[in-house]
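Entry 14. Structure prediction run on the chain below.
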Amino acid sequence: MGLVLTKVGNKIQYLASNVVSDPDAERYAKDAEAQAAHDAEVKAAKEAEQAKAAKAEADKKAADEAAEALATRSRFSVKKLGSDISKGILQAVLILSIICFAVYGGSLAANQAIGYNAPFRLLSFFYGMIFSFFIVPKALYDIYWAKKTIPYYSVVPLSTYAPSSDLEKIFIGAFCYTENESVILARAAVINSYMNAFNKSISVTPAAVAAVAAVGSLKLGETSPESKPATPPCGPKPSPPESKPITPPPAPISPPAAKPITTPAVKPITPPAANPPTPKSPPLPPAPPSSPLVSTSARVLIPPVAPRRQ
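Output returned:
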């Protein structure tokens, strides 16, 4: 029975394969697949050739431009020379204008800070250079529209030294200025502003200290144990302390007997015997009158005779 069923299944598969399979359709499918692969290869080769041609064209164009530039540079042209000179002049004028604009802004800021010390003025100069695009338009508005007088002492007023020679005026003249009444008033205004700020800080500090002290005292009163009633702890009553026998204090210790201090005998000091005074020698007899034959320079001195002791 199983063999029959197997044969029937094989027959059905054979008949279905003959009905469904078509050699022409299979051949067409294979041809279409091969044609698509061929078209893709042709397209890729064409794109690669186009890219290669475009690159070669670009390289050729760059080489032609370099050769043309080299030939142009090698040839003298008045028009090109004028164009290069005009471009250089415009660039230099633009750079110098920006530098002068920034320096003018820094100079305005330094002159406005004339009431402060020299380091602060120098810092104001750099600050004015950075923010010159704000400071310069405001200064021009104050000068030409608001008709205000802006103090200007020097380019960077740092020192009151007065340069004497022309060389000093060239090198340090831009950093020197002359004090006048406006400088003194500006310095006084700065000092007054500092004093007012100091007085305000002094007036505010005691009030702040008092407020902090009040808050601290309130917190201390809330957390202190004296403010809360003391409640006895729960538990058994404490037992009375045990009585201990009182021991008498020990007898006082007597100090050792002091030994008598014996002083050594002092020997009497006998003064040395005084030498007797020596008597004065008697005066010499007067010399005899000088004679022309005897020299008076040679005299005989008689030593004094000491008296004998009895």
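Helices lie at 2-20, 23-74, 78-112, 118-130, 132-144, 166-172, 181-223.
Filed with the rest of this week's runs.
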